[in-house]
Amino acid sequence: MGVMNKDRVNIVITNHVLRYSYHKNASLDRVIDQGEIPLPHETIKDGNIVDKTTLRNILIDFVQQKKWKRKNICFCLPDDSVVIRQLQIPAGLTKSEALGYVQTQLGHSFYLPFANPALEIEFLDINNHERSILLYAYPKDKIDAFAGLFRESGLRPIVADLTSLSVYRYFYKQSELNKDHILHVHWNWDALVLTAFHHHKAVFTRYIKVEMMEHRNDLSEETIEQTINEYSVEINRIIDFYKYSISKGQADINLILLTGDFPYLQQVKNTLRQSLSTEIHPFTDEVDDLKYIDVLGLALKEGI
């Protein structure tokens, strides 16, 4: 089980809901509280806060109702804007020096689709002259906007994370499976996020919008089946892309983690099994509701 330094609130942000959990001790065996807060339409759109007043009021009421004022909060940002790049830097740099070097190269040797990024790096292989790194970039303005609203509601934001990293954290801390090329398929009502992991590091991510949210109360079985088939083809394409482009034909995805709040995940699993021989990790033996794996994985984040 995971270790936490102190009790805290954990919130996962999506375009249509805030999912939360609260734990008073260091074990996930005893969840004090968990649930979700539905958001009015377009309060958050494409990962951006559109209606700041509504979201602030929802958070203030939520914190007051739970009596969580001044509690620490960890939050997961929407995964729609994260960029992962593999870069080469001079060998021999420390992590802080490497980050400084990357910042000097931004806009010259490589580019990002947004300004003012928050950057993190992971070291990979090194030779005599160069080191490979993974660069993770996210719009800092988005982080600051959500952190600011949490402060205004009475909470104390201490760390921001990504949903894909939280789900993977839950998996590797709870599972004994030894797989080294893993694809996380996070399927929500309005988005499909595909993230590949190798050696416990996210090496690739793809965000795909799913146009079902506005019609979710009026969906026929035929429409659901067509949608699942359509996006399952995209999942197969990403698996092929990982094999032939990311790993240069040297490795294939050998495990799929399937999570999210899309209520037809069992049908998704059945469809994928018809087209893939890849093992799909069930998670169903570990939690009652798959949609809470992301927030439980966030609660397991250590070193805070």
Total number of beta strands: 15
| Uncertain residue segments | 1-5
- What proportion of the residues is helical, as a percent range? 25-40%
**Which geometry do the CA atoms define?**
globular
Q: What is the gyration radius calculated from CA atoms?
A: 20 Å
Strand content: 25-35%
**What is the residue-averaged pLDDT?**
89
SSE run = EEEEEHEEHEEHEHEEEHEHEH
Q: What structural class should be given to the helix and strand makeup?
A: alpha/beta
**Spatial ordering of strands, largest sheet:** 3-2-1-6-10
Largest sheet: 5 strands, mixed
Through-space gap between termini:
17 Å
Tally of contiguous helical segments:
7
Question: What labels describe this entry?
Answer:
PilM; FtsA/MreB; globular; Pilus assembly protein PilM; disordered N terminus; alpha/beta; 7 helices; 15 strands; single chain; 304 residues; 31% strand; 31% helix
Structural commentary:
With 304 residues, the protein is an alpha/beta fold. The chain has seven helices and 15 strands. It has helices at 52-66, 95-105, 140-152, 163-174, 221-246, 265-275, 293-299; strands at 8-13, 17-23, 33-38, 44-45, 48-49, 72-77, 83-90, 117-126, 130-139, 156-162, 181-187, 191-198, 201-209, 255-259, 280-281. Strand 14, helix 6 (265-275) and strand 15 (280-281) form a beta-alpha-beta unit.
